[in-house]
Write a structure and sequence with these properties.
2 copies of one chain form a homodimer. With 420 residues, the first copy, chain A, is α/β, with parallel strands linked by helices. The first copy, chain A, has 2 domains: 102 residues, Urease, subunit C, domain 1, CATH 2.30.40.10; 280 residues, Metal-dependent hydrolases (TIM Barrel, Alpha-Beta Barrel). Helices cover 37% and strands 21% of the residues of chain A. In chain A, the strands form 2 sheets. In chain A, strands 1, 2, 3, 4, 5, 14, 15, 16 and 17 form a 9-stranded mixed beta sheet that branches. Chain A has an 8-stranded parallel beta sheet with strand order 6-7-8-9-10-11-12-13. In chain A, helix 3 links the parallel strand 7 and strand 8. Chain A is globular, with a radius of gyration of 21 Å. Chain A starts with a strand and ends with a helix. At the A-B interface, helix 2, helix 9, helix 11, helix 14 and helix 15 of A face helix 2, helix 9, helix 11, helix 14 and helix 15 of B.
């Protein structure tokens, strides 16, 4: 339990957009103190001169498939359907625990280097993934990944097991998507939702074809279908949310559901661009995610922020000019609340010490007019100087504390070679 | 004159998309050898084990206003017109040589850290800028910056002076834009174009309002106007090229003119998105630039590549799926040829040693399916391990050799405070 004092820091708590100067102390897992310098009655294990660098909550990657690093830059010229069915599903059928472990480790390394302290992950082989997350020390929230290919028989057990696995691991009910899941299976999922009175998450309205198909099958949009079935009776939300109509918006707003946007992935797979600005203007709950490395191809939350802030300028005559603080909130606080990480949403005394340090000496942060705008419009993973999760520094000045990057690179490339 | 041997390298010459493994030797300014390992009859000053990292030509930032770092994250919610007239022009009127020097230094630092080895820069106070470029050791191509506010009386002298200034500096004729330059001044510029038989560059068709205004004033698009005046008789090109119609495309293609795209800036200022895919399909000459830090807000060529490759997916039904190598070429070779840097376009024996090293151990580059796709779809400045210009290493593992970053940060912030 290492007690750390950060001093000479700029601090952005994300409770509001103010940036203060002062100190932040951590007690080994939580934030002990934020404020002006003052004497401490106990010794620190380490004192870090921040030299004016910025402390802020870590980014929350609110939709991803971490282990899909195998698909990074594999088959880059396909729409979602062809990419999934021709390239991804056949490889996924061959994935074993060892693949999941090492392919996830590369993903976690990318998260840590890019200031991401928690992810909301939908994938298979969850035991291997939980082991990798625990070895890495990252906060990992599973999302149920049921579809007609499998998972339905394990959903309830997984929900119980991974909500009782360890401090860093939790689990939310979820399934892949309406278009890959039969009504019979959706009804089973719905029963589990009601049994546990738990929120539910799902890929939703990612492509026009998906929404059209659902309308053909059920005479209504996926959002309306799930809502009418009672799937959203205990909250939750959806990933992508690109092709929402007014009624879908209304349902999500009335139920307080989370829309998790993945603008890079949607852009790259030619799925479209979500109506970010409309969601914001309607005061809806929004978060950001990278989606998997196969469709993005990076796990870089800064690029998601830039796109969510700027793509609306293409749609709104004269420019939408989204407030960057709203976007930064979606990428930090919003993601945390969406994933149920209510103790990792902002920097405050007693909250989890899930903190990143931004290098304010980096040229892209200078000269300083507006740090929040800078993070959203200029930021990239290279400005992340330190990443701490649950009070442990896991990444600092380019070095990993819990990951042997050479080994992870070697193993992921070796296993990729066997998979293809 | 430092002779350097890079070994255990992956090498992407950009002559084609092949990546080979081997060695690259530099002789202090140029590339001496690329190929398999072999004995050298002379000693090297330094031998660098690349450990499988990638050597490739540096990126060329083919449109920028480097000194505009003062405007980074200043007034982020304005369209081009309001942003220029209400925020930028009033500050620019107060810029002195000292501002240009230090504000440019921050920009150059960002270029080096992001793998940019040359820039095509349109701004004022060119003596101060040339001094800063020379002190930094970066390859700097000036573009004439005439408009009705000034510059016309200096254009010819500047053209002569900065094409005879030093190895790293050159100058192309240019002016700000049709909408800021009277016909009288355009005619003077046109005379100079013809006197020197020189290519000409200009902001063109950046916004719909600009094109509409030109049609009102002259009954034709800016492209057609300049073409009919003879401005493009000796080549050149335009920056932005967002609102081209078929006739504009035809003129640019027939004359072999360069279209320099700035997707981030256009997106952020709500100017629109250029028809990248149409330009590519028509086999036109294309390059990429960041524009200034005021409108971007970073000087990150990776983000430009991602957007140029992916934004067409929003326009083309079913997806455009632009070939990433075409985009990487625009950002390296294309930029070089556009700027007249015919010895810095690709890696080859006798070419300028303008080389960057990409960190292949970075998680965002692993596991390795397709390095070219990875650079375009996943890359960010944090993966640049080394930047060499004219045979000199200027940036390596986060350290600058010719820039005191602390001093540049301090001076740029001090001067910013005085400007606002």
């Amino acid at each position: 339990m290492s007690r750390i004092r950060f001093y000479n820091a700029r601090i952005l708590t994300m409770k509001d957009k103010e940036i203060t100067e002062g100190e932040l102390w951590t007690d080994g897992s939580a934030i002990e103190y934020i404020g002006a310098g003052k004497p401490s009655d106990r010794a620190f294990d380490r004192e870090i001169d921040c030299k004016g660098n910025l402390l802020m909550p870590g980014f929350k990657n609110a939709h991803t498939h971490t282990a899909m690093t195998f698909a990074r830059s594999l088959a880059d010229s396909a729409n979602l359907h062809d990419w999934l069915y021709d390239h991804i599903f056949p490889i996924e059928a061959r994935l074993k625990d060892e693949h999941i472990y090492w392919l996830s480790k590369i993903g976690y390394a990318e998260y840590l280097a890019g200031g991401i302290t928690a992810c909301f992950d939908m994938y298979f082989n969850k035991e291997a993934q939980a082991r990798c997350a625990t070895d890495t020390g990252i906060r990992h929230v599973f999302c149920g990944s049921v579809n007609d290919f499998g998972g339905i028989d394990k959903l309830e057990d997984e929900f119980i097991r991974f909500n009782d696995y360890g401090d860093l691991i939790s689990y939310k009910l979820g399934f892949h998507a309406e278009y890959t899941t039969s009504m019979e299976n959706m009804k089973i999922i719905n029963d589990i939702v009601h049994k546990f009175e738990a929120p539910l998450f799902v890929h939703i309205s990612e492509t026009k074809a998906e929404v059209d198909g659902c309308r053909e099958r059920y005479g209504m949009s996926p959002v309306k279908l799930l809502s009418e079935m009672g799937m959203y009776d205990f909250g939750g939300g959806g990933f992508h949310c690109v092709w929402f109509d007014d009624e879908d918006m209304e349902i999500f707003r009335n139920r307080g559901l989370w829309s998790v946007f993945n603008p890079c992935s949607n852009l790259k797979l030619a799925s479209g661009a979500a109506g970010f600005k409309d969601f914001i203007d309607n005061g809806m709950n929004i978060a950001l995610g990278t989606d998997g490395a196969g469709s993005n191809n990076s796990l870089n939350i800064f690029r998601e922020m830039f796109l969510a802030a700027c793509l609306p300028n293409l749609k709104v005559e004269g420019g939408a000019f989204v407030d960057p603080f709203t976007i930064l909130k979606a990428a930090t606080t919003g993601g945390a609340l969406c994933m149920g990480l209510t103790d990792s949403d902002v920097l405050d005394e007693g909250k989890n010490a899930d903190i990143i340090m931004i290098d304010m000496s980096n040229p892209t942060m200078n000269p300083v007019n507006d740090i929040v705008a800078n993070l959203v419009f200029s930021g990239h993973p290279g400005i992340v100087k330190m990443t701490m999760i649950a009070g442990k520094i896991l990444y600092e000045n380019g070095e990993y504390k819990t990951i042997d990057l050479d080994e992870a690179d070697r193993m992921s490339n070796k296993l990729l070679g066997e998979l293809l």
